[in-house]
């Protein structure tokens, strides 16, 4: 919440800066009274809306509309302000040049040739508008055009991308997989973030798409909520519809602990909230694994399902997971499948346990922005996480990073769409 308030203050500063800059141009509509009224009415209403989302218990739909408006407005105005900043820097350079030029001229000192040759005539310094559009007006209008790009793109990502669930199919080759599990269908979901949703019908459509795959087993790899157990109120019954004959196994993600709402210090409210999230998963029929494991049995053959609490390699995320504790009792399992929310855990600890065959993670969301095709993928998040989307392999160990079912912050997706991963377990070596 402090993050939202801080950015609201930054947005208010941008409002003042852009407004004054527009009024200083020769753009006619920017000087009109109607423009002033519309500009400040929208800005004030948005600021009031943001404060209300922080301190009042608004309906989820209203809160979502306010946050959507805030996010798009913030990004658009940052882009727009950059163009005015460029013009102000240019103006400042001209002002400094003029002062130096006049100072040297008054002192009767000749300017160096390399300087005097580059100085504009005095008339041009006093009035840079000669014929046609001035540089300031040109930059302002260019800024408006280019600021429309993120506005249009992000708006389209909300309208078309937020609930555009895509099924990604992946064969998972495991050399020691028991024959009874060959061909088994496993579905992974991750990063639901219930508190961000504003369309129950669309979410139900995503869950029905999962059920249409008829999975044998389902994995959920963390972040069921943004912060609070109460976010599940309108969606718990929808997620309870998930069924699989061999069970639904889940773990906690960094957001499930409530630390972004209650802080890092222990408190009764924080502990109670976490217990409600755990209870909700049990009531939905999910088997929540808290540094523990289960044996999955088919036709007298078994594999191990292991789940750890959140553990991230960075300093920003909680380290609750105990991998060694979770592995206790799995020594005789021919194949071990591990659920761990944060993919940075794989390189930091899991690769030191070569008996863990495959790890299933989420967390990155693919930053909800980028490009993803069958043969190419890119997102800014790859500069933060080495493993951020899809299948990775090192030696005989594999990691799959799901880019998430829901969204957080920006209420949409551009290029990196919400994911339902369908694995087909295969006995043998990867032919690739």
Could you describe the 3D structure shown?
The protein is of the alpha/beta class and 432 residues long. The protein is elongated, with a radius of gyration of 28 Å. Helix 1 (2-23) crosses helix 3 (60-106), helix 2 (33-55) packs across helix 3 and helix 3 (60-106) packs antiparallel against helix 6 (135-161). The chain has two domains: 2-159, no CATH class; 164-427, Purple Acid Phosphatase, chain A, domain 2 (4-Layer Sandwich). The protein is built from twelve helices and 14 strands.
Any descriptors?
six-stranded mixed β-sheet; single chain; 2 domains; Purple Acid Phosphatase, chain A, domain 2; alpha/beta; 432 residues
What is the helix content?
40-55%
Give the overall average pLDDT: 86
Distance between the termini: 47 Å
Q: Which class of the largest domain in CATH terms?
A: Alpha Beta
The 3D shape can be described as elongated
The total count of helices amounts to 12
Integer count of domains: 2
Query: Any guess at the CATH architecture of the largest domain?
Result: 4-Layer Sandwich
CATH homologous superfamily placement of the largest domain: Metallo-dependent phosphatases
Give the strand order of the largest sheet, numbering strands 1, 2, ... along the chain.
Answer: 1-14-2-3-4-5
The main pleated sheet reads as: 6 strands, mixed
> Taking Cα atoms only, what radius of gyration do you get, to the nearest Å?
28 Å
In N-to-C order, the SSE pattern is HHHHHHEEHEHEHHEEEHEHEEEEEE
Approximate strand percentage = 15-25%
The number of strands is 14
Pfam family, one: Metallophos
Domain Calcineurin-like phosphoesterase: 184-366
Keywords: Hydrolase, Membrane, Metal-binding, Transmembrane, Transmembrane helix
Organism: Albibacterium profundi
């Amino acid at each position: 919440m402090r993050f939202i308030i801080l950015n609201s203050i930054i947005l208010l500063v941008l409002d003042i800066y852009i407004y004054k800059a527009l009024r200083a141009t020769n753009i006619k509509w920017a000087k009109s009274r109607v423009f002033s009224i519309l500009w400040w009415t929208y800005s004030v209403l948005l600021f009031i809306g943001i404060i209300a989302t922080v301190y009042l218990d608004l309906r989820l739909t209203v809160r979502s509309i306010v946050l959507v408006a805030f996010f798009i407005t913030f990004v658009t105005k940052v882009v727009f302000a950059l163009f005015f900043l460029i013009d102000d820097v240019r103006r400042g350079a001209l002002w400094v040049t003029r002062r130096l030029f006049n100072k040297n001229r008054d002192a009767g000192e000749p300017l160096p040739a390399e300087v005097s040759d580059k100085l504009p005539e005095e008339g041009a310094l006093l009035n840079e508008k000669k014929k046609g559009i001035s540089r300031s007006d040109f930059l302002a209008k260019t800024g408006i055009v280019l600021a429309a790009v993120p506005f249009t793109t992000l708006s389209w990502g909300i309208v078309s991308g937020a609930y555009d669930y895509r099924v990604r199919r992946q064969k998972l080759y495991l050399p020691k997989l028991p024959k009874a599990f060959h061909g088994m269908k496993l579905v992974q979901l991750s990063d639901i973030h219930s508190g961000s949703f504003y369309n129950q019908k669309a979410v139900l459509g995503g869950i029905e798409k999962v059920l249409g795959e008829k999975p044998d087993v389902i994995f959920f790899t963390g972040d069921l909520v943004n912060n609070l157990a109460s976010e599940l109120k309108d969606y718990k019954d929808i997620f309870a519809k998930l069924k699989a004959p061999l069970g639904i196994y889940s773990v906690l993600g960094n957001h499930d602990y409530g630390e972004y709402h209650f802080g890092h210090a222990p408190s009764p409210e924080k502990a109670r909230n976490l217990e409600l999230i755990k209870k909700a998963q049990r009531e939905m029929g999910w088997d929540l694994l808290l540094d523990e494991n289960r044996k999955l049995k088919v036709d007298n053959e078994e594999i191990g399902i292991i789940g750890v609490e959140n553990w991230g390699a960075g300093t920003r995320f909680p380290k609750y997971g105990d991998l060694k504790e979770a592995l206790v009792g799995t020594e005789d399992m021919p194949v071990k499948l591990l659920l761990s929310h944060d993919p940075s855990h794989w390189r930091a600890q899991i690769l030191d346990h070569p008996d863990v065959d495959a790890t299933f993670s989420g967390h990155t969301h693919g930053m909800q922005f980028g490009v993803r095709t069958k043969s190419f993928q890119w997102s800014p998040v790859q500069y933060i996480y080495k493993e951020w989307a899809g299948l990775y392999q090192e030696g005989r160990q594999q990691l799959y990073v799901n880019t998430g079912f829901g969204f957080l912050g920006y209420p949409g997706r551009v290029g990196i769409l919400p994911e339902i991963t369908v694995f087909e377990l295969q006995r043998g070596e990867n032919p690739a």
